[in-house]
Amino acid sequence: MKTVLLAALLYLTPNVSSNDNNTVYISKGSSAYAYHMKKSCRTLKRCNEEGHVMAITLAKAKEMGRKPCKVCYN
Ligand SMILES: [Zn+2]
Predict the structure, then answer these.
(1) Minimal CA–CA distance to 36: which of 50, 53, 24, 18?
(2) Given this model, what pLDDT does residue 30 score?
(3) How many angstroms does the Cα of residue 20 sit away from the middle of ligand 1?
(4) Which 3 state secondary structure label does DSSP give 52?
(5) Domain ranges of the chain
(6) What is the pLDDT, as a whole number, of residue 19?
(7) Could you list which residues have their CB under 5 Å from ion ligand 1?
(8) Cβ(52)–Cβ(29) under 8 Å?
(9) How far apart are CA 67 and CA 37, in angstroms?
(10) What is the pLDDT of residue 26?
(11) Which segments in the chain show pLDDT lower than 50?
(12) How many other CB atoms are found less than 10 A from the CB of residue 40?
């Protein structure tokens, strides 16, 4: 019985936190404040060219105080 419960928990857990485990993209620039859903976001274009874009998890982006990009998340 215990095994069944554990299996159910393992099965359910990823769904609960899946959002925060999503990959988002941020610019490493100090003035950057947003995280992006798409690496091809037009507001990230310049950063992409300079190689300053970094892929991280949504949870980490929130932890850093980043806000959702208005272009990606509208
Ligand atoms: Zn964006």
Answers:
(1) 24
(2) 77
(3) 17
(4) coil
(5) 20-74
(6) 85
(7) 36, 41, 43, 69, 71-72
(8) yes
(9) 11
(10) 97
(11) 15
(12) 11
